[in-house]
Amino acid sequence: MFFRTLAEARLILGASNLCSRRSESVDLLGLVLHGVPILVLVPCIVWIVRFNISQQKGERLTLKWRDMDPVRKTVASLISVWICLNLYLSVGNELANLNVLVLPLGSIYSIYGPILVWASASSIVGLAVLLSIRFPRRPVIA
Which of 20, 37, 68, 96 is a Cys-bridge partner for 121, taking CB atoms 3.0 to 4.6 Å apart? Predict the structure, then answer.
């Protein structure tokens, strides 16, 4: 084994990464809260790759801001604000964890760990929706 003692392994890997021999039970809630966003992210990333391919083939239009209707503008604005807020909070959380700088609301993600994973997943989904709003498919003329 790479580690001489269990204490050494806990120090390097962290206590949450090791199962003690006394309790071999799996934290089902933690598994769900950390695992479900991955199931959301994989199809979303595949969709973004397919989106990129369809855009390179010329199958999508590029809508300018002035050409969008008010509903599309509102949804695109809200998604953009959500992505920027998550980016700000993620950077603020990391800066607070490193004891470099504490931004207002910056350590909000350290309250409960899965919030960061879910917020990141929702930002990726928001990016996919934003791309589909900004670059709709060309109408098929028969």
Answer: 37
